[in-house]
Amino acid sequence: MTAPTLLAASPAARTDRPPGRTRRAAAPARARETALGLLFALPGLAGLGIFVIFPLFQAVYLATRGNDILGNPTRSVGLAHFQELLTPEFGQVLWQTLVFTVLVVVPGVLLPLALAAPMTQRLPGMRVFRTAFALPFAYSVSAASVVWLIMLNPGISPVNWALGLLGVPAPNWTTEPGWAMATVVGVTVWMVSGFNLLVLAAGLAGVDEEVLEAARMDGATGPRQFVSIVLPMISPSLFFAVVTTTLAALQALGQVQIMTDGGPNGHTRTLVYSIFDNAFHNNNSNFGLASAQGLVLLVIGVLIAVVQFGVLERRVHYR
């Protein structure tokens, strides 16, 4: 390559171009990149608008409207539907939703963690146990609810039969106020445990053996090693399990409707079930009140997300 050619190809030579000509040449390229970016983002923006933004505005609109017997919105009622929520009955619904969520999330994460820890050991038969304990993940909500209704049916219940062998009187699992919530909570924990077991087992399988060996050489063994070394290393999986289990508990509907229908006397009536009851159950078609309750659920979900991502995530160690 000759000296004039090298001079022309050098950066110094390129910077000798007039600034106006360079900007005019780059403008069409930036316009094409912008148009291409908008084209790729268009499906996502359309989905966000159709499935998130539009339902949100629809809920706000319906929450401020009365409706006829068919549920069609009629006159404006302002904040009357929100004032209907200022009752002890709705406070009881919120309290039962909180109790249900806590009782599902805590054992729904700790129980799979306790099962996943020994299952990661290379012992004979562990694959069979892992598959058996993860099997509830394959059940639909309807199927799991019907299975457990049969398991707890007073006439044919094997659980009641086993309790009878031990001399323990069997309760009415779904009709006694003190046991109905515990039964629905237990079935929900059983359903979420399979998924959480897979997530936490995958996290435990990814723990570096060299790190564990170094910890053992430093004297960290047993529970100390698990708490100080293993838990921080699987904290992303643990955080994911906590978030998804919280969402599953807040959105639980099928098991409540099938097993107790919100009873007895409203003792298993959660917020999502109350929304369903006002909007669709027995042709109530009270979409205004249901929309107001749905907005309350949205606010609760946002507050929980702020706490989880603002507080808990700070303790997560991403590698």
TrEMBL record:
Lineage: Bacteria, Bacillati, Actinomycetota, Actinomycetes, Micromonosporales
Annotated ABC transmembrane type-1 domain residues: 94-308
Family note: Belongs to the binding-protein-dependent transport system permease family.
Name used for this protein in its record: Sn-glycerol 3-phosphate transport system permease protein
Keyword annotations from UniProtKB, A to Z: Cell membrane, Membrane, Transmembrane, Transmembrane helix, Transport
Protein species of origin: Micromonospora luteifusca
CDD domains linked: TM_PBP2
InterPro entries: ABC_transporter_permease, MetI-like, MetI-like_sf
Low complexity bias (residue ranges): 1-13
